[in-house]
Design brief:
The structure holds 2 protein chains of 2 kinds.
Chain A lengths: L1 H7 L18 H5 L15 E7 L5 E7 L1 H4 L4 E6 L33 E2 L5 E7 L2 H10 L1 E6 L6 H4 L4 E2 L9 E4 L2 H7 L2 E9 L11 E7 L2 E6 L4 H12 L6 E4 L15 H13 L3 E4 L2 H7 L6 E9 L5 E13 L21 E10 L12 H19 L3 H7 L11 E2 L4 H12 L11 E3 L2 E12 L8 E6 L4 E4 L9 H13 L6 E4 L16 H23 L11 E3 L2 E3 L5 E3 H8 L3 E6 L4 H21 E2 L2 E11 L6 E11 L6 H20 L5 E2 L4 E2 L18 E5 L22 H13 L15
Chain B lengths: L4 E4 L3 H10 L4 E3 L5 H6 L7 E4 L8 E3 L5 E4 L4 H6 L1 H6 L1 H9 L3 H6 L2 H5 L51 H7 L3 E6 L2 E6 H4 L18 E7 L6 E7 L10 E10 L2 E10 L6 E2 L1 H7 L6 H11 L11 H18 L3
Helix pairs in contact in B: 5-8, 10-11, 11-12
Classes of the chains: A alpha+beta, B alpha+beta.
């Protein structure tokens, strides 16, 4: 079997740059202010736009008085459903064209008088200055006719609708009869967990700059998917896709919040069309929170049955999550319960409950981030029931193959992860008794949780051009959301072609470039580097063609040191080869820009994706070890130590990969301890739409976070990569809750874990 | 933000005249709260009187051992002042527990006293709020009120005062000096802020046109002092409960006590009942608990904030325990 796997490997042998902690190529531009974000692109004659939000959860706009707003000096236009030009409705989502999934909601903003959530944009003010736009937006008077609304998930969750499984949504998965096995189990826990909604709060709020030239549109947009934005806008405005250019040179964080097209993007393009001016809309933090979905609240049941020795006999994980009546998808909270433990009987089931609320959207490890809180807390609770060490319980139930299907794991070694983490954290020094460890007056607790996420691997188009001066240009419409994709692409290219990493320039973030996948699902780096590798192989074949008749023969030479060189040192530099051939450069690209080529590429990609899915489960895995201190008087919880050991396949750049995983831990600490979108059920209104009242962790909340890697390649992917974007947040909240239980003896099954729940 | 008239005041007389001439005018110092609220459409002053350049930036040690603090002294400057750090540690700690370094560099002593509540319904112009719009009702009582008051609230308003500094000042017997075109007067800090009653829009006893020019502290009591702030994250969050206390203990007996609470009322709450129990009693955990119980005896909570009653008691005990232990 190993031989078959080996054959699949096209990865180059370990080389000079891959695997090294190279500084990010855009680091200096970012820290010195040189990097330009979507709200900063200069345009002469630019106008500014601001949103007016609905203040009822459901109903109809019966009147809009814009007189006062229009009287504000500098106001150019107040757009409402009464005067906005018609846009073509969004396409029906189809698996054959993934860009149809672009819109966060099908609601046709400003083309309808209907209100679907408190906060929906009902008007846009365009003005000469940002200040005038915002001042006037406050003066737009909207009257409504309200309709009965369901605004409380706590009520709606009692009427769940089962999710029908599909290619993109997990519905129900069953192996054996889990309920019966549970009833028969000598030891069992049956528990209910709840998690709240969470707002997206990337460092850069969503921003769009749009300019029309006839029916050609240029949009600078803070997006994780320039291709989707391009196709969506082309459709909505009825113009050719080729005439829409979307640019996103730098994006200040995405986390899924910029994975769909939301109101700001569409309405900026609309405002630019109506006013005939370039228009910029930089959303306020409040506008982000009112118009861009977040993580949906959930209620979950996890029931585990086991033999007295800890062997799992039953695993039930079901979840109900909120969706908006106007859109949003299931939070697949139980998806990792299909894969994490070897129980002979497993039941996973997802349902949704409709609420008149802002449609939810992807947020870092959708479903799994909050589902792992329930599953990994329950495992800890079972360990306490059994009197077993929680790591030991996990190790004993490590599956050999997918417990709910016939696929095998492409790579997985969680036992090694647990062992290494335990050693480095000093886990053996843990007294399992709650409230047994102290530091002065502080109660000290240690907690552990497993992490698992299934990164997706998609295709992508790329162009690689080797120039006669020995430098290399890589072009691909990738999105730099902060992860360092340009850096790792340069590393992979440099090694594939045998040039210094400094000789490689990566151009990305522009729809004029070959189409790349979105930065989502932990897929961008693995997809992009696989495409780069493929293009480099093509380029090398062309290069060999050029030296076919050279003397000495270079057929078996190596691409290294900026040329083709034999083991005896003989060879030619790329400059010499291209000079001899009279070529300024030589290039190769994957994919095609033509409509047909793109459609064919999409079909090829889906076919490959489905075939792979039948054979393999590719899990990025890990384990979190954390220490908390709890004040015995006030029950304040502070996280004081963190270790994460991850198995994410080959690590291209440990510095960048660690940084992403650390970010996942920080985000998870926020979800564990403080973050909660407060929606007042009387109005359906988010009451904390800003960073003052929506508490993300500050520096003082985050301890030093140590990250370790197993760093073994996944033998079934081109470079051996899995993905690091999301696995880092899975398990974090459970590790904190488990540590808090160890410190205090109090089990909290409701997030966030605020001190009042411990008093 | 809506348009407003802007007046820059070069001296206190001009400032108070401008405030007197323009009803509803707001003084602008650090702007850390006023400007935010103007952006949120909560504050809508027709006129803003810029007092940020007035010569009220000195901290002066008084002959009687007290301290006179200009109204425009920045929070960061006051916290770093040697006299504050050595003789009023409770004040330095309170200041440093508030906001962030950047905000403390801007925020002034006068502005800190006048900051508005952070009640979620006060800062959302679409909600009912008697403080923002008298007579409109109170959405907080039936909504989210984790930060709300457990002492001195009314059916009309459950908002809390968010200041940390003011809690320390309340424990330190501070006084506030105000000027207006009618002259000047001095107000004890504990009487400066009002409880809501049926007029929650009136948050202080300041009359229209009055401007804070200084805060004065008497010499501190002997013994030690400390400020403890309990909040949802380690920094940059308002207090759920805070305690400012100074305790003098001789031969195991409390000879003097000053205690004030934050995060529990519309004003910094001087804990008179607790002080009464403490004074003359043995400095023991049991005494501290009795003092805390006495102070919170009439506290009432709402579903979302009643935990603060027990939390306040525990925090009082924790702080007093820390101060009562011989060094």
């Amino acid at each position: 079997m190993t031989t078959a796997l080996e054959k699949n490997r096209t990865a180059p042998a370990p080389t000079k740059n891959v695997g090294r902690s190279i500084d990010r190529v855009d680091g200096i531009a970012k820290v010195s202010g040189g990097a330009r974000f979507s709200a900063e692109v200069p345009y002469a004659d630019i106008a500014h736009a601001a949103l007016v939000h609905a203040s009822i959860p459901r109903g109809r706009v019966t009147g809009i008085d814009t007189t006062a707003a229009e009287a504000v000096p500098g106001v150019l236009k107040v757009l409402t459903h009464q005067n906005a030009p018609k846009m073509i409705p969004s396409a029906k989502p189809s698996i054959m064209d993934l860009s149809t999934m672009a819109p966060g909601t099908p609601i046709n903003y400003l083309n309808t008088d209907e209100v679907h959530w408190n906060g929906q944009p009902v008007a846009v003010v365009v003005a000469e200055t940002l200040e005038a736009a915002h001042a006037a937006a406050r003066l737009v008077e909207v009257s409504y006719e309200s309709r009965p609304a369901v605004t409380d998930f706590a009520v709606a969750q009692d009427h769940p609708k089962p999710v029908k499984g599909s290619l993109i949504e997990v519905g129900e998965v069953k192996t054996g009869d889990a309920e019966q096995a549970l009833a028969a189990a000598p030891v069992a826990v049956d528990l209910r967990y709840t998690t709240p909604g969470q707002n997206h709060n990337a460092l850069e709020p969503h921003a769009t700059t749009a300019a029309w030239d006839g029916d050609r549109l240029t949009v600078h947009d803070a997006t994780q998917n320039i291709d989707w934005v391009r196709k969506h806008l082309a459709r909505r405005f009825g113009v050719p896709v080729a005439g829409v250019r979307v640019i996103a040179e730098f994006i200040g964080g995405g986390f899924g919040g910029k994975g769909s097209v939301w109101a700001g993007t569409v309405l900026t393009a609309l405002a630019a069309k109506v006013t005939g001016r370039p228009v910029r809309m930089a959303l306020t933090r409040e506008a982000v929170n009112r118009t861009v979905g977040g993580r949906a609240p959930t209620v979950q049941r996890v029931a585990l049955g086991a033999q007295r020795d800890g062997t799992l006999t039953a695993l039930v994980h079901t979840g109900v999550s909120q969706v908006g009546r106007a859109g949003g998808g299931v939070e697949p909270v139980a998806s990792q319960s299909q894969y994490l433990y070897a129980a002979p009987a497993i039941l996973v089931r997802h349902s949704t409950a409709e609420v008149d609320a802002l449609p939810n959207t992807y947020m870092r490890a959708p479903g799994e981030a909050m589902g792992s809180f329930a599953l990994e807390s329950a495992i800890d609770e079972l360990a306490v029931e059994l009197g077993l060490d929680p790591l030991e319980l996990r190790a004993r139930n490590e599956p050999e193959r997918n417990p709910t299907g016939r696929q095998r794991f492409s790579r997985r070694d969680l036992r090694a992860v647990y062992a290494r983490g335990a050693r480095e954290f000093g886990w053996s020094g843990r007294d399992p008794k709650p409230r047994s460890m102290r530091d002065g007056r502080w109660l000290v607790g240690w907690g552990v949780a497993a992490a698992l996420h299934l990164p997706v691997h998609l295709g992508g188009d790329v162009l690689v051009r080797l120039r006669a001066d020995g430098t290399v240009l890589v072009r691909s419409g990738l999105q730099e959301i902060g992860v360092g994709v340009a850096t790792v692409v340069a590393q992979v290219t440099a090694d594939a072609l045998g040039v210094p990493v400094g000789a490689v320039t990566v151009e990305l973030g522009d729809s004029e470039q070959p189409t790349a996948p979105g930065a989502a699902g932990s897929t961008q780096t693995s997809s992009a580097t696989a495409a780069v590798l493929q293009a480099c192989e093509q380029l090398k074949r062309s290069m060999l063609g050029l030296v076919r008749r050279s003397s000495p023969p270079l057929r078996d030479a190596t691409f290294t040191d900026g040329g083709l060189f034999r083991a005896d040192g003989a060879g030619r530099s790329y400059s010499e080869i291209l000079g001899d051939a009279g070529l300024p450069s030589i290039e190769a690209r994957t994919g095609s820009d033509s409509r047909l080529g793109q459609a064919a590429g999409q079909v090829r990609m889906m076919t490959r994706f489905l075939a792979d899915r039948r054979r393999w489960v590719h899990p990025a895995t890990g384990a979190h070890f954390c220490e908390v201190r709890v004040d015995p008087d006030t029950a304040e919880v502070r996280v004081t130590r963190w270790l994460g050991i991850f198995d994410v396949g080959r690590v291209l750049n440990p510095k960048l990969a660690s940084s992403q995983l650390r970010g996942g831990v920080v985000m998870g600490i926020g979800a564990a301890l403080t973050e909660e979108t407060l929606v007042d059920p009387r109005s359906g209104r988010i009451m904390n739409p800003g960073l003052g009242e929506y508490h993300v962790p500050v520096h003082a909340d985050v301890p030093r976070i140590d990250i370790g890697f197993i760093d073994e390649p996944d033998p079934t992917t081109p470079l051996g990569l899995l993905g690091v974007g999301e696995v880092g947040i899975t398990g974090v909240a459970a590790a904190v809750a488990n540590a808090v239980h160890h410190a205090t003896g109090v089990r909290v099954r409701e997030l966030p874990l605020t001190l009042d729940r411990l008093l | 933000m809506r348009s407003f008239a802007y007046v820059s005041a070069p001296d206190v007389d001009t400032a108070v005249r401008a405030l007197a001439d323009q009803p509803g005018a707001k003084p602008l110092a650090g702007g850390t709260n006023l400007v935010d609220l103007m952006r949120q459409d909560v504050e809508r002053p027709a006129t803003v009187v810029d007092i940020s350049t007035l010569p009220l930036t000195e901290v002066e040690v008084l002959p009687d051992g007290g301290l006179r603090i200009g109204a425009l002294v920045r929070n960061s400057h006051l916290a770093a002042h040697p006299a504050v750090r050595t003789r009023y540690p409770v004040l330095a700690q309170a200041l440093l527990s508030g906001a962030s370094g950047q905000i403390r560099n801007m925020a002034t002593v006068g502005g800190n006293l006048l900051q508005r509540t952070r009640c979620l319904y006060f800062v959302d112009a679409t909600a009912a709020c008697n403080k923002r719009e008298p007579g409109s009702g109170c959405d907080a009582a039936g909504g989210f009120h984790r930060a709300a008051a457990v002492l001195g609230a009314s059916e009309h308003c459950v908002a809390t005062h968010p200041s940390d500094m003011a809690v320390a000042l309340a424990a330190l017997d501070a006084t506030v000096e105000v000027h207006s075109v009618r002259g000047s007067r001095t107000i004890p800090l504990v009487e400066f802020h009002r409880l809501p009653g049926d007029r929650p829009e009136r948050e202080t006893v300041l009359e229209p046109g009055e401007l804070i020019v200084a805060v004065e502290l008497p010499a501190p009591i002997a013994g030690r002092s400390a400020y403890r702030k309990v909040r949802d994250r380690a920094s940059f969050a308002f207090a759920l409960v805070s305690v400012a206390a100074a305790l003098e203990v001789r031969d195991g007996v409390v000879t003097a006590a000053r205690v004030a609470l934050g995060g529990v009322a519309a004003k910094p709450w001087r804990a008179i009942e607790a002080e009464r129990v403490l004074t003359g009693a043995p400095a023991t955990e049991e005494t501290f608990r009795r003092a805390a119980e006495a102070e919170l005896a009439h506290a009432t909570g709402l579903p979302g904030n009643e935990f603060k009653i027990e939390l306040a008691k525990r925090t009082i005990v924790a702080v007093l325990r820390g101060l009562g232990v011989p060094e």
